[in-house]
Fold these 4 entries.
Entry 1:
Amino acid sequence: MEHLRFEDMNLSPEICRAILDMGFEETTPIQAEAIPPILEGRDVIGQSQTGTGKTAAFGIPCLENIDETDRSLQAVILCPTRELAIQVSEEFRKLLKYKDNIRVLPIYGGQPIDRQIVALKKGVQIIIGTPGRVMDHMRRHTLKMDHVRMMVLDEADEMLDMGFREDIETILVKVPAEHQTLLFSATLSPEILDITKRFQNDPVFVKIVRKELTVPNIEQYYFDVKEKNKLDALTRMIDIYDPKLALVFCNTKKRVDDLVEALQGRGYFAEGLHGDLKQPQRDKVMQKFRNGTIELLVATDVAARGIDVDDVDIVFNYDVPQDEEYYVHRIGRTGRAGRSGKAFTFCVGKEIYKLRDIMRYTKTKIIQQKLPTLTDVETMKTNLFLDQIREILKEERLGSYMDTVESMMGEEYTAMDVAAALLKYNISAFKVDDSDILDDINLGGTELYGGDSEKMVRVFLNVGKKQKVRAKDIVGAIANEAGVPGKALGAINLYDDYTFVDVPHEYLRDVMVAMKNCRIKNKKVHAEIAKKEKNKHR
Ligand code: ADP
Ligand code: MG
């Protein structure tokens, strides 16, 4: 079916204008096929994958059908979770931007019921709520269902997964006979079809076929990795691509928890999302995700489904998904609305067969890529740094800096020496090659600054009190990264901009290597062995 234009759908001017403001250029397939029959008053079953615009598919005709002169409740939308209820009501608010007389209210558990009751009393034509809370209000008679003309079950598969079947049925039984019932879902189970048989009247079945499930505009790659190397592979990719926002999928809740812990230990801003989290925790995570204080969201399929987050640059399949359809849902989270996106899948051994099935199903190629080596990471970062230098050379006046360089040339250095030294100073911060460390260590014990005792070596770290670093952050980082027990460490002296920590000689190499690839308080750490005379800090 052609992608219809919204203009050709006989929508009210207010809605058309709102759609224009939202930046929608044309209908998505589910919208093209579902909106006309809903406007005609038919019951509809709509099936299409996550991210295909199901909300507007029922939202637009729902708003068109509301009688603005009547303040009673006219439409009830049931959603599986509080996040989704909020998301759907946000989409509704955008759609009714120019409809001044329509009121929408999300109602869900966790929010004080009194406040909802007050809001409901003011006259709300549409509520968007979770089944539990909607039933609660019905029992209290704070929701009057007698004028309801439209019921919507959004993300029906998920609601059933979450055990809401009875609640849904209880609610549907109470709605007056004369009404429209719409059901939208990414997948359709026999259980859903049971519900539609009982509660829908000769429904129009709109299914957007699998072929269109394929998400365009996404580069898809896989890496052949060993299980134990996945974490390194992930962090390396993150370091290289430096995504603003990445979504990492694991197959189980436990995997999510473990990965989040490991990532946080390495100083990444990561949070997890899965079914075991209590509502306040989920809210907190989503809040952080929306305001950009998380760079990595680690999630299970069910937890991530239906959550609408834009601007995901990269999707990682930390585990190959069990179900082919999951793969499509997962990677559909990036490259939305015409943006380009990337999807990387970590594939262990025989999982390549699963991946082949996925390729066949999605009719796309997932291309094998070699994991970047540490040298690649370094080269990439050096190039980035050099690009920045080129920008500065192009744009800025460097007069006063020139003077400084000139004065150094008075000390018998050439401009080339100074430039090279500056480059080394900058790049060594993320240099991962450990030959310089070995050089340092092999210089011999005499040159090393003995810490508290003969056996300790003092290590300089370029983070300190100003970065809000505490001794326990240092101990934690060294313990996590280098596997050195905290109690093995000697004195830790924190200064404003740097820290000295005494490390047993036997652990020195491990600590130095680990610190080259680690962040403390999200700052890339630069570690050096403190030597006796050479440097001003020491
Ligand atoms: P679904 O419920 O199918 O998972 P959503 O309704 O959450 O999908 O929509 C996903 C995203 O796509 C939202 O950000 C929504 O605003 C956007 N969207 C919906 N319809 C269109 C359209 N016709 N053109 C562009 N973007 C759209
Ligand atoms: Mg949805």
Entry 2:
Amino acid sequence: MKIYRATDYKDLSCKAANIIRAQVIMKPDCILGLATGSSPVGTYEKLIEWHEKDDLDFSKVSSINLDEYRGLTPDNPQSYRYFMNTKLFDHINIDKSRTFVPNGLEPDSDKACKDYDEIIENSGGVDLQLLGLGHNGHIGFNEPADNFPCNTHCVDLAPSTIDANKRFFASEAEVPRQAYTMGIRSIMIAKKILVVVSGEDKASILQKVICGPVTPQVPASILQLHGDVTIVADEAALSKM
Ligand code: F6R
């Protein structure tokens, strides 16, 4: 694992965006695995800035997102499709027909997951997977469990995840209780993985992810077994290292 220490969130976002920029320049038709949540927002802002100022070109890029809430329409402001459109895709020259997010509206969860695995399989493989880190160590919505789930699956969100994500909703009751998420295998087969972690509230879990045992109780700990992981974290998130 390579660990980059950023001074603050702005520095973190710039460092992470630089790694994505390098990927897009080196392989213009690359496949980016993308994440939602607060952590990557600054990274997306940087990429938009460089697209506008420096012509960073996304015209041949495809993207595959980690997850989507079950039951939310793509135009629901809390859906991850809406998040990706408004925080990134609407502001760069990516072809939206090549941006993939699980279909939260598919009521048949087996079908939703199978369809998404086919998309991942047919893509030929994610070149660079961007991840945030949940307070309980989740990546995507792979919550602490007794084993590492392989492929895309429907997950019951952990109470701590519902609690952490209620800030985006009018009330906790409105947070969907289920989501479709890429599995651990789908994440681990990405050629490169980039994790962005910010804030003191992530310091304990980040320490466990990097230094603790590999266990499905801390899903992100499996990243220790991947050959090309870069973690970009700010001083606060690294304060327990
Ligand atoms: C988002 C996702 C989640 C978040 C994690 C951290 O697509 O899959 O795993 O990355 O919950 O969220 P933030 O960045 O909001 O702390």
Entry 3:
Amino acid sequence: MKIIAGSSSPMLAKNLSKEMNVPIANVSIKRFPDGECYVKINDKFDHAIIVENTYPNENIIELFLLQDAAKRIAKNIDIVIPYYGYGRQDKIFEEGEAVSAEKMAKLIEQDANRIILINPHKEYIIKFFSIEGKAIDATNSMAEYFKGKVDIVIAPDKGAMRMAEKAARVIGCSYNYLEKKRISGSEVSTKVKEMDVAGKDALILDDIISTGGTMIEAIKQLKNQGAGKIYVACIHGLLIGNADERILNAGADEIITTDTIESAYSKVSVAREIANLLK
Ligand code: R5P
């Protein structure tokens, strides 16, 4: 058995390799001058664990090629997709749209035996795959990081409320949620709501930080209501453009993400949870 580290996930693949005591495969991944991708597995094994995001777009092609190369040498292929890109379009919101999350699943399952996703945008996304699949919820791992650090967990919108509740249970503190209205892809507004945060250290927790707009709105409310330290955390830190800078300038004391999308803010690893499932 060997782990194939896709370009999106060298750090997570290494952590997974340590957790499972399974070596990383020797793989060459190159880009041609026109942007096309080339992969070659310089190794022999009969069970491959491919770790690769379906984000950004070029990693999708890289994943398909790694799957194709792997199926030519290995009998078993497990695919770990730490951040399932295209997951947010998980149903038809307006007539004429594609269901991207389902289409991706149909393409990926062609050369795979088992699939693992980490906090897909909606739990039912795993059902788009007709192969064996499991969705990991990394909320508990994230919450462990905040034990003894915060007095309250805030969900920046109703969609994140269950996460906030779960995290609060692990931390042993209270939770609350805000009501968000999305104006455009990068603009949101949040209804003013009194929360019991004055003088308290707070964690704002969501599944994804994309442009940072959602978090910035929540930070403003917490600041206005006299919160102490403000921690901003998510599972998938897309952090588009200078989202991190904007969040820190808005008054966050720290940003914490997992290593599903690797950055300087990836302070919590999901490797152990993946390893527990794969072992
Ligand atoms: C939305 O449903 C997600 O849970 C996040 O709240 C959203 O993706 C965050 O986006 P942004 O950082 O651009 O406000």
Entry 4:
Amino acid sequence: MAKKIIIAIDGWSSCGKSTLAKELAKELGYLYVDSGAMYRAITLYFLRNHVDWTDKHEVKNALDAISLEFILNEKSQLGEMHLNGENVEYVIRDLVVAEKVSDVAAIKEVRKFAVNQQQQMGKKKGVIMDGRDIGTVVFPKAELKIFLTADNAVRVERRFKELFEKNPNVTIEEVKSNLEMRDYIDSHREESPLRQADDAILLDNTNLTADETTQKALKLVKKVMSSN
Ligand code: CDP
């Protein structure tokens, strides 16, 4: 059997990282970890509990009270985010959470909390993780790093469709401004800013279907696996 590797997928919001990661995980029989779900769940906790995240003590106390766990959904065969035992996989996708998540994810203590757990999940390899700092900080030695990108308008359209299915009141303008705001904060923050790792492979899927993106990535996986 081929040696197990770690695949890191980073990139801008809504460029199809999780779609690609889930497909690769299915193809390879690997574990998929959505690192963004962890930052979203922490943000949900902060919002629900009125945590003042500009106050270090409040952040520390809140993190001490947070337990995050991905629990397998037997039907989809994917892990779903649980916050202190509650399944929050769907509620964390809401724009209310998306409006604040980049501020929360920029906090040093929050990143330390999440990154420690992410690194534990990668100990046995055979993992595909997507996010913003996976190839640069979480797994700098990942055997394969993909930096996914797509044109802004395409990304806005994709995310709008996804959110509109759940909530027909959502507007394309608010989705666009949320994406732009998060991309700006994520790439300009002091702690682990979003950037392409030097050894990451750039994959632009503006004109590719999800399946075509997966096929391109699978070729990269095979190349890496044959040289490992
Ligand atoms: O799905 P989308 O790409 O829009 O976002 P996500 O992966 O759910 O991540 C939500 C937010 O969490 C991002 O905008 C970042 O602020 C933060 N995040 C991060 O800082 N580091 C990661 N490894 C993953 C997400």
